[in-house]
């Protein structure tokens, strides 16, 4: 049986995970250490042979192998639900829908029916991108979160006014309707989540860790407190957490998305909006539509990459980083050496500067995508990179930025036919707005903070937002989600990846891709390797604790970089391929994730 990753989780940037007793395993899965271990943390030995970082805590990755498919998510219960769908004849889309609904029950800190997300799929050889991002209510206005002095109010981040129109149910229906197999009905795919909500799952350390961080938000709202903090405290470890009201909501959805966007569930949501001063109306809910879009497609060293287009910035920014770095033989610079990290940071800096200035909802903003994705643009950027000096961000003209919040969750699925789904979903912050729908048992998002409440000022995650992402009725807020599928030179899927962690999603996915393509790491080592992040503004590089040796830090600081240590960066489980086997790598930085093979 596939086992869980049970490492300590940092509560700085990344987020805990709900878990529970795994479903019965139809066949044993062999779990082995990855054949390619994580390279030693860069220590700039040529400069200072005595300078060593502390041991890297994820040095020996653990992976799950399987020939007939794989599911990897941030929650063991949900991974096993998806695995069982594959084992009983479902395809990757079927398993993705079932996994997503299971996450809505067992992983309420980010799994949801009250939020939205994106998916990139490769089914029967065709690439697609599905946008089910939340939208601003019709009553939203550009300056709705400004006080009398023009300063931002907390309403954008906390409580009922921060909620965007949810897109998850519409998106999962569209994924099922368009790409699901004939072997699994919509009702079949909802059944595990309904059972899980009604009968419950075991409260473990992973679930409790999310409540430890989310408690202060949840206790502000009586309905949330009653559900998640009964008697004023989290449920006891080993007890069973049940959510019968959510089970009822999911049973209504069995007839299709109208069971959520109309009828009793919609009425309950809108009633609460009216009572607490929210903006979403029945018309907003009924009007919501998920949208199929053309994926961002680009190549990197003979590999084809497909990722999410706007209103997610993920795919375009990944492509810009890749195009800049393809002009360097970074594999010859040394894995995470000062020289290699320098060009990577500079590519990230320039890509984020362009992202921040140019990207937004394509239905509202005209974007120069052809220019940003061109070799000419990448060549211009490379010409401004000085070999031994960091470029101050003040020297790169750009508008400010926006991104999705850190409490997001990503999962990947591949099936026996080699078809793949990469899906990222979010409610933004830990437990979203903190508001649970009365009688509904599900938490609502606080995605309105991903808009530029005040263009030119930082949002809740330190990102300064631009005019292209200003609030408008019906508009989709810019995101950093980056569900991604990489195809090798042989035309077969090589990597299915994505992540959680706001703006660090893009850089984490990029590093996993580069770790495999440039340095030959297998997926377990690629996921486990130290991560770094540079996003133009603020002008600093974030690195993971124990992920950078002192001598390397000194060299980078001498180049002009400001370095800041964090607990860990992003949460990016992935699936890779080696020959005829799929290799699943859960996120070792997160408590409770699981890779599971049928």
Chain-wise SSE layout:
Blueprint lengths: L30 E3 L28 E5 L3 E4 L2 H12 L4 H15 L9 E8 L2 E7 L35 H12 L6 H14 L1 E2 L2 H14 L3 H7 L11 E2 L2 H10 L4 H4 L1 H14 L5 H6 L3 E3 L2 E5 L2 E5 L6 H12 L12 H21 L10 H4 L2 H9 L23 E8 L5 E9 L55 E4 L5 E5 L6 H14 L5 H6 L3 E2 L7 E4 L5 H10 L3 E4 L7 E5 L2 E5 L8 E3 L2
Helix pairs in contact: 1-2, 2-3, 2-4, 4-7, 11-12, 11-14, 11-15
Task: Find the CATH superfamily.
Answer: Gamma-glutamyltranspeptidase, small (S) subunit
How helical, in percent, are the residues? 25-40%
The biggest sheet, with number of strands, parallel, antiparallel or mixed sense and barrel status, is: 8 strands, antiparallel
Q: Beta-strand level of the residues, as a percent range? A: 15-25%
Q: How far do the termini sit from each other? A: 10 Å
Structural class of the secondary structure composition? alpha+beta
In short:
The chain is an alpha+beta fold. It has 17 helices and 20 strands.
Could you please describe the fold and organization of this structure?
By secondary structure, the chain is of the alpha+beta class. It has a single domain (61-292, 405-596), classed as Glutamine Phosphoribosylpyrophosphate, subunit 1, domain 1, CATH 3.60.20.40. Helices cover 31% and strands 16% of the residues. The chain has 17 helices and 20 strands. It has helices at 76-87, 92-106, 168-179, 186-199, 205-218, 222-228, 244-253, 258-261, 263-276, 282-287, 314-325, 338-358, 369-372, 375-383, 504-517, 523-528, 550-559; strands at residues 31-33, 62-66, 70-73, 116-123, 126-132, 201-202, 240-241, 291-293, 296-300, 303-307, 407-414, 420-428, 484-487, 493-497, 532-533, 541-544, 563-566, 574-578, 581-585, 594-596. The protein has an 8-stranded antiparallel beta sheet. Strand 13 (484-487) and strand 14 (493-497) form a beta hairpin. Helix 1 (76-87) packs antiparallel against helix 2 and helix 11 (314-325) crosses helix 15. The chain starts with 30 loop residues before the first strand and ends with a strand. The relative contact order is 0.21. Mean pLDDT is 89; it is low at 1-35, 43-52 and 399-405.
